[in-house]
Automatic annotation (TrEMBL):
InterPro entries: DNA-bd_dom_put_sf, MerR-type_HTH_dom, MerR_fam, SAM-dependent_MTases_sf. It comes from Proteiniclasticum ruminis. Gene3D superfamilies: 1.10.1660.10, Vaccinia Virus protein VP39 (3.40.50.150). Residues 1-67 form the HTH merR-type domain. It comes from the Bacteria. Keywords: DNA-binding, Repressor, Transcription, Transcription regulation. The keyword Chaperone does not apply. Signal peptide: none annotated. GO terms for molecular function: DNA binding; DNA-binding transcription factor activity. This is DNA-binding transcriptional regulator, MerR family.
Amino acid sequence: MRIGAFSKKHQVTQDAVRFYLEKGLLVAHKRGEQYYFTSSDGEDLETIKMLKGLQFSLSAILELMTLKRLSGEDSALYRQKYLKHLRVQQEEVFAMRKKAESLERILQEKIEKVEKEEKKDRVLGIPLEALSILDCPSCGEKLPLKRGDLVDHMVVEGDFQCNCGYEAKISAGVFVYEPSVRTKMNCGRKMQTKEEFLQNSSHTYINHLYQTMGLMMERIDEVKSPLPYMMEMNNCVGFFLQQYLKELREETTYILVDYDLERILQLKRNLECYAKHEKFLFLCCDYDQLPLKKQSVDLLVDFGMVRNFEKETGKCLLTPVLPLLKEEGDYVGASLYAEMKKSELRPEVKGYEETFHSEKMKAQGLQMVKESSLGPAYQENPEDAFLSGKPLYQKVIHGRKKKRSIVLEAI
């Protein structure tokens, strides 16, 4: 809807909406000179109104809205920041007790709600039905579970031993292939935490990533077929999931992959505390060692991992993962590219070209369904120095795996 109808629906002035857009509190799509607002923008506006009603400063609201777009409302990082701001406000309320008894009561209720959710005692593991899609990555045979400890129909501890000699384990609900476990690196340095990324990025760039994920979710929503298994491919494990969690279909088992065990355990603890969804498959291994049956995944979600994987290994990520996608299964991906001059096209910047993502997809035989670009945006302190000061864009692609044709020869 347009700004007039949007402001009227949420009982604010058009000037207030424009002010929130200017300050980066609201993010809306613009077509020509007109802004168009979605139900998601309406939820953001109601959140802003709620926080303003709690007397939060504009800088605090901007920090929370920015963090929400980076990690999602259900992330530990968001809730810790939210709780910190709530406590600051509580101290001010105590100083004005006689004038603000009603506000004190509201804040106390919200603090108790956050603290109660912090104390959730829930364990996630590998769902029993997900064992049916586990195959040995070495020989391709069914991966046998030799021992397993169950909690609520999920395996939380166990051992896999294949006749070919391949061995793996389930530890704290995570499938772990020990030879793959190592610390996540990026550009030769230990990968940033979400908090470090937030400190080094402007709210405008994070809003750009948020819009990208929003467009990816639209593409996923256009997939009307059932999605028993989805797999996210992301350099920052679970980054897309934190935004998609509320939209995740009840029947879907969501597969998360990372070779950094601490990062995947941190995500798992976060989901155990805050997520209502229970079907997750945590895999700590390399992408070329995925213990999944061929044609077992219904949809692949790729948030920049094709480029990151090729930069790290020199190989195309789609080569090991596409055989896992079912025929006529869907691929929804986003890839960062930079506005570059021809003189800048050198081997070390490979992967930042506009056509990189779509060319890789087509070369692997995926059929193009939709292709869109978002941007430009600027990242102030990128881990890759080449991107500093450059106009950056996100290419969002929806592809589909072609169905194999069967040729019948006349006898």
